[in-house]
């Protein structure tokens, strides 16, 4: 009965194994592409929103900046600054910065794809378990991205405020300072455009290293299909969020939580698929029903996702409680100022505070209203216990979800509108207005060709990320002003990000380097086979005198027989052609490969002497024979270490097949370390199991076994059986 269940399980594993090797779309690439569509939209509209608000303030009152923004909504749509050429030129600079960032992303992603594919395509074994491991990880990364989108839905639908518990940020926080410098500090259009480029680039660059392992053996058409699927999904998702915001203004909370739950369920299913792919390789549950590990992983992942969603909900409650305390203080102030001429509806208009604190960063005290950048207070007219504003006005979220506002042609700023609102420049296009102002800003600016490449932006983005990552190490940073839970989260997230990138880089380096080792081994293998096996039954032999036990070498088997000697093994005698070592060859015939691997691992940390002690005590070879084995270990460490690491990851560490069709560490060792290219283990040791005609744990064809040995049964000869 158990055997029957195992057979069914094995059949299911084989069927899923076949399905897993067929790749039509890489889920990690697709979901990351979709995420980049979403955050690019958010980032660009962040710049546009802050720019509109800043010019609205500037148009209202250039001399009293602190009071501007209390009625920001009216000034955002005021026609005065919409006809301002500087504002129009800034919008064009945002569009050009987006174009530059997209070009950077295309160059980076296609360049890294070409490098990885070029280094791994030709010699990677398509049937390798390593590809299944990568496939499983791809599904798990996709599940993480879907979960992140699910956690963000309440925020994007206006149900939640900005959270400080972010693993993936949807905006870079570059826009507020960039707009401040450009509008109020006089930075040039070129500088503002470059900041837009960095803002979008911060999102795209963060996934470059993570995607490297998924390029391994990935065909070009699958790569393009994955990108296309992600882009389409991202655009459709954006538009769906926009429509939900418009249609369900009164039931936004229910819609947000429902949509979030659906995405988390989908994320759990994708995570389960990834675990099952990895289980194909590692056989975690070979004697259990095959679906059990899938169901277990599904509910564990779903539980984790719901815990994080609950953490976000708890944070929103804390925002509300904190706001209630602020309102009590405000009511006391109102009572004291009842006789004043100031209108309280304007003085304590929370909506104005939202825009005042979101447009200009708190670092510059001239433009700050004292509100936290992460908290967006709710409208006073809304119920304080609601988690969303039913009558909320335009916010940074409002414009981010309408993807038609992001166009490379700049049609969101129509020429007809400019002609209607501007009398001085009615015949000029927006690009011409931008070019004129840019020429005045920097008349001698000469852009070098290499400035258009993504390398300088990558460097600047990495510097910014490094400053953010290690902000906890600077005593004067804002990190020390945060509550304890945010500090813990900041440290945890940054450590996790570093570990994820290191793992991705580690896997990529392993597969690239193991591919190079495979190329070398495959090139050497024919010559190694020729030297070792072509004439092994015709050349010198090592024989012994059964009467006295003497062991000596003869030029041929005929000479040995004429001298009344019994042939012990093919080939010349060596350091392992002693009675002790010959007996060890037979007694460890089913375990020598594994024992040798364990001793070889000693060279990693303990060096040659630790490996030598292991060979003598664990295996049983003595003296010079043990030295030959240690030299072989060191040779394999030099030429085959990454193939060994790859086999460890893919659960093929016990696969000792030696043939051009199977890329194993045993094959690599034989190609590089046995026949003098450069290792010479066979000549050094003399005796080994295949030369003694012993069938071992390494399966070999008959033409690789010595057929002239005179001992038919070594077990009986040594009295072991």
Automatic annotation (TrEMBL):
Keywords: Membrane, Transmembrane, Transmembrane helix. The chain crosses the membrane at residues 101-121, 133-159, 198-216, 222-242, 254-278, 290-314, 491-512. Coiled coil: none annotated. The keyword Transmembrane applies. Signal peptide: none annotated. This is Uncharacterized protein. It comes from Stephanodiscus triporus.
């Amino acid at each position: 009965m158990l055997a029957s269940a195992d057979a069914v399980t094995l059949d299911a594993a084989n069927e899923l194994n076949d399905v897993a090797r067929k790749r039509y779309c890489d889920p990690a690439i697709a979901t990351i592409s979709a995420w980049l569509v979403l955050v690019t939209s958010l980032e660009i509209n962040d710049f546009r929103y802050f720019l509109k608000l800043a010019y609205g303030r500037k148009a209202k009152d250039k001399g009293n900046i602190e009071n501007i923004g209390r009625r920001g909504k009216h000034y955002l749509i005021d026609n005065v600054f919409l006809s301002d050429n500087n504002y129009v030129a800034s919008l064009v600079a945002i569009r050009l910065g987006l174009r530059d960032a997209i070009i950077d992303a295309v160059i980076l992603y296609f360049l890294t794809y070409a490098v990885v594919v070029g280094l791994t395509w030709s010699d990677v074994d398509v049937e390798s378990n390593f590809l299944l491991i990568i496939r499983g990880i791809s599904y798990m990364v996709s599940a993480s991205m879907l979960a992140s989108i699910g956690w963000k839905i309440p925020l994007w639908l206006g149900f939640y405020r900005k959270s400080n518990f972010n693993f993936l940020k949807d905006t870079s926080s570059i826009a507020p300072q960039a707009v401040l410098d450009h509008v109020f500090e006089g930075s040039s259009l070129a500088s503002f455009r470059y900041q837009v480029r960095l803002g979008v680039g911060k999102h795209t660059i963060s996934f470059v290293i993570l995607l490297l392992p998924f390029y391994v053996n990935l065909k070009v058409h699958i790569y393009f299909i994955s990108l296309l699927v992600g882009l389409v999904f991202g655009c459709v998702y954006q538009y769906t969020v926009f429509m939900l915001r418009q249609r369900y203004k009164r039931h936004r909370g229910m819609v947000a939580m429902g949509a979030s739950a659906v995405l988390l369920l989908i994320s759990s299913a994708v995570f389960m698929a990834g675990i099952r792919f990895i289980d194909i390789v590692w056989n975690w549950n070979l004697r259990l029903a095959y679906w059990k590990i899938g169901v277990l992983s599904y509910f564990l992942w779903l539980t984790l996702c719901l815990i994080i969603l609950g953490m976000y909900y708890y944070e929103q409650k804390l925002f509300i409680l904190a706001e209630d305390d602020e309102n009590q203080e405000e009511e006391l102030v109102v009572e004291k100022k009842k006789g004043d001429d100031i209108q309280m509806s304007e003085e304590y208009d929370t909506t104005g505070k939202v825009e005042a604190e979101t447009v200009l960063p708190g670092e510059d005290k001239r433009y700050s209203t004292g509100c936290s950048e992460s908290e967006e207070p709710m409208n006073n007219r809304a119920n304080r216990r609601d988690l969303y504003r039913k009558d909320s006005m335009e916010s940074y979220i409002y414009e981010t979800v309408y993807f038609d506002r992001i166009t490379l042609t700049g049609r969101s700023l129509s020429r007809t509108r400019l002609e209607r609102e501007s009398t001085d420049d009615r015949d000029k296009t927006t690009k011409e207005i931008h070019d004129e102002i840019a020429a005045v800003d920097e008349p001698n600016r000469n852009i070098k060709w290499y400035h258009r490449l993504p390398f300088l932006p990558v460097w600047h983005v990495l510097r910014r990320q490094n400053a953010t990552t290690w902000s906890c190490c600077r005593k004067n940073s804002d990190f020390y002003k945060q509550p304890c839970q945010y500090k813990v989260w900041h440290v945890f997230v940054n450590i996790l990000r570093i570990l994820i990138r290191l793992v991705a880089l580690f896997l990529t380096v392993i597969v690239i380097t193991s591919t190079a080792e495979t190329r070398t081994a495959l090139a050497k293998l024919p010559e190694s086979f020729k030297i070792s096996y072509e004439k092994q039954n015709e050349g010198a032999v090592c024989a012994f005198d059964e009467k006295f036990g003497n062991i000596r070498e003869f030029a041929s088997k005929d000479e040995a027989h004429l001298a009344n000697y019994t042939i012990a093994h093919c080939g010349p005698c060596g350091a392992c052609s002693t009675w002790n070592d010959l007996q060890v060859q037979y007694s460890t015939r089913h375990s020598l490969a594994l024992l040798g691997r364990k001793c070889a691992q000693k060279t990693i940390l303990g060096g040659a002497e630790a490996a030598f002690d292991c060979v003598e005590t664990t295996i049983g070879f003595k003296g010079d024979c043990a030295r030959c084995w240690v030299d072989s270990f060191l040779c394999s460490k030099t030429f085959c270490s990454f193939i060994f690491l790859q086999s460890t990851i893919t659960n093929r560490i016990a696969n000792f097949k030696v043939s051009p069709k199977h890329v194993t560490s045993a094959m690599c060792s034989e190609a590089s370390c046995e026949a003098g290219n450069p290792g010479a283990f066979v000549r050094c040791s003399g005796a080994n199991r295949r030369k003694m005609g012993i069938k071992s744990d390494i399966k070999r064809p008959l033409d690789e076994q010595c057929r002239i040995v005179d001992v038919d049964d070594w077990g009986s000869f040594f009295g072991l059986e």
